[in-house]
Amino acid sequence: MDTPPCAELHLHVEGTLEPEMVLALGERIGIPLPYADAEDLRARLAFTDLQSFLDLYYANTAVLRTAQDFAELMAAYLRRAAVAHVRHAEVMFDPQAHLARGIPIEEVVEGLAAGMALGAELGVSSLLVAAFLRDRPAGEAMEVLEALLRAGAPIAGVGLDSAEVGHPAAPFADVFLRARAEGLRLTAHAGEEGPASNVTEVLDVLGVERVDHGIRAADDPDLVARLREEQVPLTVCPLSNVRLRAVGSIAAHPLPQLLAADVLVTVNSDDPAYFGGYVDDNYAALRAETALGRDDLARLATNSFTGSWLPAARAAELAAEVEAWRLAV
Ligand code: ADE
Ligand code: ZN
Q: What number does CATH give the domain 6-327?
């Protein structure tokens, strides 16, 4: 299906590890994996909730060790993103998932940056976002932030991800304050499995500029009004939400309702290797299974540039490409 040029604002690079790459990297470094083949791994991508996914997602990071591994992962994602008409990607990675396995932070960021340079040659610009794990202590996140700063890691911002329920964002306030003082941009997952109040928490306590997922905001009319007034971008991931059973189906997804309420909703893929589709597949699913039409997809894509951390002039240039797409039938 024809999908618009867009920015991808919610993408975990570790979530682009396709089963074939897990097997190939595992073989290259000679570690035993509990999968007979790629199809066997693919058959296990049936999740009951966020945690059941995270268990597999973290386990598979065992195949990422060298800068070359990280470079290949990033480059493969950006190649696929170019096919999906992604013109700009703001890519999260989980430093703690790699530090915990003894991989030096320099190895991770050097590799990711090399992959990003290859993506730029394909016409996909990208920024890197270090995401802290909310189910690990905030003190550890602060240490990781300091290590990233010491290493001169080329990060544009920080985020907060992993298990939401039972893991409040408030303890991370100082980490986000420190990141902001360093000129870093701020985002956080909230309202994916947790309630609308978690969205309010990351806005008020962490001071984030945008919210990853945020779909449960739809349960609270006052919060929806606030998101509209403040034009807070929500980086929504429809296929992810269905696969992790945060919503029952694409047809029942709150995205159209939030868009109709003039919230700055965007469409993204989250962990495309695990959830059955890249960002173009997410746009196509919305077009096929909701009442959203071509103009609505164009609006969502324009929102993705507005909600990006690109300079306003560049975001406007890319938004003009969306308008050209809208008019080309
Ligand atoms: N890490 C990777 N994908 C995630 C998601 N959908 N929610 C929280 N943490 C994540
Ligand atoms: Zn996510």
A: 3.20.20.140
